[in-house]
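Standup notes, structure subgroup. Blocker cleared on the alpha-D-galactopyranose input:
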Amino acid sequence: MRYLPLFLLSLGLPLAGQVKYLAQQKMFVLTAGDVTYAVGVNEKGELQPVHFGGRMMRDGDFRAAHSVSGWASFDLAATTTPKEYAGAGGGLFVEPCLKATFADGVRDVVLKYESHQIQGDSLVIVTKDITYALTVALHYKVYPQGIVRKQAVITNGTAGVVTLESAQSGSIHLPPGEGYAFTHLYGRWAGETQVARELVQPGLQVIESKRGNTSHQANPWFAIDGPERATETSGQVWFGALGWSGNWRIAVEQTPHQQVRVTAGLNPYDFAHPLKPGEKLETPPLYVGYSKEGFGGASRAFHKFQREVIFPGGGAARPRPVLYNSWEATEMNVNEAGQAELAKKAASIGVERFVMDDGWFGARDTDRAGLGDWFVSKKKFPNGLKPLIEQVKGLGMDFGLWVEPEMVNPDSDLYRAHPDWAMHFPGRPRSEARNQLILNMARNDVKEYVFKVLDDLVSQNEIAFLKWDMNRNASEPGWPEVAPADQKKLWLEYTRNVYEVIDRLRAKHPKLEIESCSGGGGRIDLGILSRVEQVWTSDNTDALDRLKIQEGYTLAYAPKAMMAWVTDVPNFNGRSTPLRFRFLVAMQGSLGVGNNLNKWSAEDFALAKKMVSWYKGVRGTVQTGKLYRLLSPRSADGFAATEYVAEDGKQAVVFATLHSQQYGRTQPRLKLQGLDAQAVYQVTDIDGKFTAVLSGAAVMEYGLPVALTGDYAATAYTLERQ
Ligand code: GLA
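Run returned:
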């Protein structure tokens, strides 16, 4: 392998990411792994997308960009010419990236190339309005994992206020055509990351959040495949995701001239962002990629990028510890003795982190009171948290705590002292959800309060981990303390301040780890994932439902951050599945246990101990390997399978689950993927009952005979390369 880089160098090919400017063609060529993203400056000085797809090798193959003539008197060239970052003006009718009103009332923005700067794997192209000193700097960074990061910085260089009414992170353009399909994730509380796929149609298809956070209902990730349909293993897929946890929007558009474009960024809904002279707005980053190897290839590239670039600590970050969480066992009925008892039992099965959930603070006996008062309840913990933490640590685990810092119950000391801190419009009702209001985190004093209470908690106690929850969306988003023209900035400032609190907390407490939770998976996106180690995937812990939630999740996000707990049954749906099935589903992500261990039998403990110990032997592969979704849980017979292959190819892990057996129906052999056909593997099932030495070719071409029988049956295999 050692000579490979030299060999590539000798061909003059970039090893990782590279940015080039071809002066003759006025063309920027960005190479990200196997992907090329090219943008030209056309004869009018406009930035025009040229290519986003497979890698281009020869500079001479690029032709200078030329604007596209208009169509009759109705579609001007402004609309028919693809624009890298379209200003709303000059007769543009497609989705704009930027819409603005100048101080004199002018509502026309036409952007042209001004200058550029290349620095290693980064490029900045500065564009400017044809008349006014409003500039947009387009920032690009390329990554060897095949990903391009796009971000726009909009600066008001005029002497008056410029109000931005739409500020998008950017657009991507696909080769013109029809018959593309748009895949996205939708859902609801307890039913997140469901997969939807629809044909791209003429006009706009929009997914968005206007709730103040990422949302359960839609997720800021998209994939477009086609024009021929892609599968898990083949076909072209363009994909992308926004790094933003506030209001966002992704618009997929097919123009009447069969141009297909995706525009993503801040949601223009209820958006008005006045920029004073000299001020700038930085949009959230948009990460985009392309694969010729179907949805599987697309997600593997994106997962690798997330693990190595987005997640805190990058590739060097340690594996996720096996976690116990008290919520489903004790809900708010927590106290020192009860939690210590659970901790003892959790430690006995190999748990590494004990997390006490809701109920430990203020007057928090029900969800009607206490949020906002982040002080340890004297009634439940007369000696504070220290004695419990000591016991947890004595058992060889670290300690984590649940918080919901952006919230307040009207029945709390905080609300009694600062009713104005809750989001509201003066003189109008404040809608409660789960008996709580949302604090206006856009306010500086609220942000500082939240930072201080969390900082105090973590400074005064040995807390290794916070589960940061957010159990409602924003309503009545008033910010009466600032001028009416600035009040809509609340959406942006809220999210920025949440990020700031997390960033400051982490900087001050470098060992602290955080889980993002919003009533389950309401805040999962690349903005929060660059700040937290993991996310709570869903409050729904029903194993069968989870298979579908996890499948959708992994289309977009890496399994390492995907927390999956084993909990008691019957649970959601009133469904009872065997403990073994629940473990084998949860072990496909980062494992947690949330059972009431006081109710477990000796057999349950024995099984859990075996499962946790087996998981520890494969978690490196599950959490940081390449994921192959072999059989979808959405298939008719409910036979589902996933495979994870370690980056170094030494280990592979296969999980197979069967919903319900149909008498006499033969299950397909499981054809594995991503192995070395020539290599020989020791194949062993989780029970040690099946062992065989098989070649990569055998398990990939002939397949693995997995004979699951009965309902909610599950098994797993390891393949160790010999
Ligand atoms: C949310 C979370 C749960 C739990 C409860 C506590 O619903 O998603 O896991 O923490 O809040 O109130």
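Discussed briefly. Residues 327, 357-358, 402, 469, 471, 517, 519-520, 536, 539 surround alpha-D-galactopyranose (CB under 6 Å).
Next: hand off to the docking folks.
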